Amino acid sequence: MSDNTVYRASTTAPVNIAVIKYWGKRDAALNLPTNSSLSVTLSQKSLKTHTTASCSASYTGADSLLLNDEPEDIQSNKRTQACLQLLKRFRHDIEVKNPSAPKLSTMPLKLVSINNFPTAAGLASSAAGFAALVRAIANLYELPHTPTQLSLVARQGSGSACRSLMGGYVAWRAGTARDGSDSIAEEIAPVSHWPNLKALILVVSADKKGVASTAGMQTTVETSTLFKTRAESIVPQRMEEMEAAIHAKDFAKFAEITMRDSNSFHATCLDSWPPIHYLNDVSRAAMNAVETCNRKAGKLIAAYTFDAGPNAVIYYEEENEKLVAGVFRYVLQQVKGWEGEYGAQIPSNEQGGLEA
Ligand code: ADP
Ligand code: DP6
Ligand code: CO
């Protein structure tokens, strides 16, 4: 008699937005970065990925992923395959130790995932997406692994995903081991450490970006003359300064490093050949608006950062919300091409970091 039991687990995962950017791989196969990075995990109340993983002996065919209602080719995606193989191996180890455990590792997997925000638009969909994929399968397989252990798996799907398995303030240590065993994420402070830090997400464009992150960073590593200096001489010190600023809740320092690092990353993009342009006129208007906020306040009260796309994330402290929101509303009303905002995210203690 065939067993039609369907085993299923669902989860959600948050987006994280780096304040020290990951850009460049030292090993493309293992997805190892050239530099460490640091991010803030955002609220799940507005931006999140929801993923369901199921498996059954009655399923036929290969493992599959339905992303935003469209089939995604995961068979030829080496990075997704690496995640699935690792997770299946972990499950297989459990089945060997416990012969009565159902043999989930041998069953085809069906993954169904929805991002409730634009995919591949520079809002970290690969981060929330692979964090959700790994966690959903880890739940399905009842794996005992810690978030840090799972970050090793998620990293192989998309580098930034390793940071979305934790809340609050998360460092991804580049590591030095050739096998990537020390290239992991660690929470340096919980969300409760800095409860009044907020993030405003400005959706300049929901369109798919012209140059995907993986391809863009490869071009930068191969062609940018600025890149080596950034990775080797600038980021290591910035990581230390940023960790200190976060621990001290020193917003002015946090803001300066965040903006300088975003600008440094986009400078290496422009310095690549062919040049990569992620920012547009609306992005630059958002940068000007932040500068206006800071000029009005007479100190740094707002910080912009941009991932690989034109969309802006503005960090600020809650007590300055009126000023920041007022300036943005005024400035962006005048800008053509402005689409909308995801609103301010405030912290909470749920799994993610900053909460809406
Ligand atoms: P982003 O700036 O949105 O992270 P990337 O170029 O880094 O853009 O990655 C986008 C890719 O990440 C998508 O084309 C898709 O392959 C993958 N991805 C996005 N969301 C998910 C998801 N929910 N589950 C699995 N993979 C996803
Ligand atoms: C600019 O993690 O999307 O957002 O590892 O190739 O999937 P892959 O790249 P990805 O790159 C993110 C780049 C960034 C900076 C960051 O999140 O640190
Ligand atoms: Co990405």
TrEMBL record:
Q: Which Pfam families did the record assign? A: MDD_C, MVD-like_N
Q: Which pathway does this chain act in?
A: Isoprenoid biosynthesis; isopentenyl diphosphate biosynthesis via mevalonate pathway; isopentenyl diphosphate from (R)-mevalonate: step 3/3
Q: Which catalytic reaction applies to this protein?
A: (R)-5-diphosphomevalonate + ATP = isopentenyl diphosphate + ADP + phosphate + CO2
The domain of life for this entry's organism is Eukaryota
Q: Name one GO molecular function term.
A: diphosphomevalonate decarboxylase activity
Which stretches make up the Diphosphomevalonate decarboxylase-like N-terminal domain? 13-185
Gene Ontology biological process terms, A to Z: isopentenyl diphosphate biosynthetic process, mevalonate pathway; sterol biosynthetic process
Q: Can you give the residue ranges of the Mvd1 C-terminal domain?
A: 199-356
| Alphabetized UniProt keyword annotations | ATP-binding, Lipid biosynthesis, Lipid metabolism, Lyase, Nucleotide-binding, Steroid biosynthesis, Steroid metabolism, Sterol biosynthesis, Sterol metabolism
Please provide, in alphabetical order, the Gene Ontology terms of the cellular component aspect for this entry: cytosol
**What EC number(s) are associated with this protein in UniProt?**
4.1.1.33
Family that this chain belongs to:
Belongs to the diphosphomevalonate decarboxylase family.
This protein's name: Diphosphomevalonate decarboxylase
Species name: Lithohypha guttulata
